[in-house]
Amino acid sequence: MNRYNHKMKKTRILFFIPFMNGGGAERVIMTLLSHLDRQVYEPILVMMKREGRYLDMIPKDIEVIDLKATQARYAVFKIISVIKDKKPDVVFSTLAYLNLIVAIIRPFFSKNITFIARESNTVSVRNKREKYPRLFDWLYKKVYKNFDVIVTQAKFMRDDLIENYGIDKSKMVIIYNPLNTEDVAQKSLEDKGVNLPSDKYNLLAVGKLGYQKGYDILLPIMTRLDESYHLTILGEGGDKEKLEVQIKELGLESSVTMAGFSDNPFAYMKRADVLVLSSRYEGLANVVLEANYCGTPTVAFSSPGGVSEIVEEGKNGFLVAPFDKEAFAKMIEKTKVHDFDAQAMSDMTKERFAIEKIIHHYDTILKKREGM
To answer: Which of 178, 244, 322, 334 could make an S-S bridge to 358, C-beta 3.0–4.6 Å?
Structure first.
């Protein structure tokens, strides 16, 4: 039979996510919600709590279910209830706590439901930051195998799950993050609110103000650069006050601007000279894809995660051994004299990460589930 016949039952997918804050995982889910073929799929969004900066961007035809739970662990029975009530063909979850809960309850549901986890980070590194790291490692080893499919954003992440948690390789699928080239291109041309000093060589960092992003490592790097360099940091988070204190202690008040959250970081990326990524670990950094598509190169630590699978030396940026501050500063200086081809950078990024290509990969997973 032709699966695309309009008379056939649509594949109902429950997308589970904690909130709609300004993170990479949320943006990936938003992209999937916006671009999955409505003639084939019926996507439903289930949020632990209906809040976040991206709420207004949820497509109008999407049913949104608010579980009204402050944390995923308080919503276990609500998650079970909504799955029983909606009778989905596919359950798709993302982010660590939520994935673990869904993995735990998966055995209580029919094998006819496909359970898919999208892993957003390098698990073995992230778990070290948990209050009970051994417990989290144990849970990943015991229950993560309950998923039918596990999507990772990079080979590094896949291998981490296989080697450290014994996940069957046959369950693993590598799907890079989708890049909405049309949206990035359009928004990058806007300049409202963008305030980068015109007389400086502008460095840009984008992401949540927290331990993972390594801004506390990046700030001392700025002391190794002369006054012609300026760093703008876009993002909010729990480390804001600590970073503000560090900026003062290092005497960087005139060299660093903390600009807060921006719903259009692409306009900054288009006008910046270099995107800097100082993360201690990553999944697949969306900001690198976005900046490269805007024609802006990246200097990044080759820390655990998928960054090294994006950056090609001299073509779209440079990688630095973790966490060599002196080498990072020198590589930033090198970008000033290196001849990057902005158009080639943009074309290369589109070829690998455009939405159409990534949506096709997700579509393949769903077709495989139905034996097509």
So the answer is: 178
The helix/strand/coil state of 83 is helix
CA-CA-CA-CA torsion for 311, 312, 313, 318, nearest 10 degrees? -10
Beta strand 149-152 pairing with 172-174: parallel
Tell me the pTM.
0.84
Helix (H) or strand (E) holding 259: strand 256-260
Radius of gyration of the chain (CA): 21
Q: Report the relative pairing of strands 274-277 and 201-206 from DSSP bridges.
A: parallel
The answer to whether residues 235 and 213 touch, using CB atoms and an 8 Å cutoff, is yes
Torsion of CA 179, 189, 23, 113, to 10 degrees: -40
Residues facing 46 on adjacent strands:
16, 65
Local confidence pLDDT in tens for the 372 residues of the chain: 444 444 578 899 999 998 887 677 888 888 889 999 999 999 999 999 898 877 888 899 999 999 998 777 788 999 999 999 999 999 999 887 899 999 999 999 999 999 999 998 889 998 998 889 999 999 999 999 999 999 999 999 999 999 999 999 999 999 998 898 998 999 999 988 898 999 999 999 999 999 999 999 999 999 999 999 999 999 999 999 999 999 999 999 999 999 999 989 999 999 999 999 999 998 888 899 999 999 999 999 999 888 999 999 999 999 999 999 999 999 999 999 999 999 999 999 999 999 988 999 998 887 765 544
CA–CA distance, 251 with 226 (Å, rounded to integer): 13
Domains in the chain with CATH codes = 11-178+354-369 (3.40.50.2000), 181-352 (3.40.50.2000)
Rounded Cα distance between 220 and 188, Å, is: 29
